[in-house]
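thread: overnight batch results

M.L. [08:02]
morning all. the overnight job finished for the chain we discussed friday. pasting input first so we're all looking at the same thing
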Amino acid sequence: MHSWPRLRRGALCTSIEDFHASVVSCPGDARRCGTPVGPGLLLPRLFLRLVGLLRRRVRDPAPAKPKDPNSGLLTGTQLKKALATASYFPAGYAADPSLARDTGDTYQAPTTKSAANPHCAGLGATSWISLTGVEGVSFAQDSHINKNTSVELDQEIDVYRGTTATDVMKDVVKVVAECPSYTDSDTHSTVKVTGASTVGLGDEAYTITLTDSAWETGTTLIAARAGTAVVSVLSTDGSDNGATSAKKLADHVLASVKSMSGSAGQS
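M.L. [08:03]
and the structure it wrote out:
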């Protein structure tokens, strides 16, 4: 009767290689081998090892693809369309091409700097929202100036990831606290800065008023949040320091942003 090769005493055959080794080490001398290992014992062990490998693969799935942090956020190209167009502005106003900018159909990397010690004179300039030290992933801005009176209406929309827009609104308040006044570089007079929360505009809003005895009229700035977007405007149009025209413009742009955000899936 044929005798199966045996392993050395105490050895276990756990693979084809082990089984092959047992055959080589026991060339016909059954007395030198240990426990018999035949097909009835070898194949079940190999089957169990294979099942174990398959189970590990099931338990350890491939890592999920990371979510795009800009998913659902409006691009600069879209924001540009949300700005008030030429037909919105009263007669005599014209857009200044040199002050029109946007981030196009791509996103820029967001950056954050401290809002402490801001350049306070920047409150009287376009893109004054940058004094917060936070740059979003997309933006669009432009300015319209009355060629007869030199008064201006500036508008800008910035979009941020996550809850950053809420932080920007807090930083606007901090900027005002850091800048109770500043010196006008043209008149060398003192500009007084005041600010207050504003209801009825977007999810939250803050209004800043700049006044100077050397000016014919003051300036009103408004920052208003709509989801992940912050609309900022500047107005010198009106005897009320531009307050009415600034609020009207902010409300108009906010409505456009909300309409576009809904179609883009922006919260």
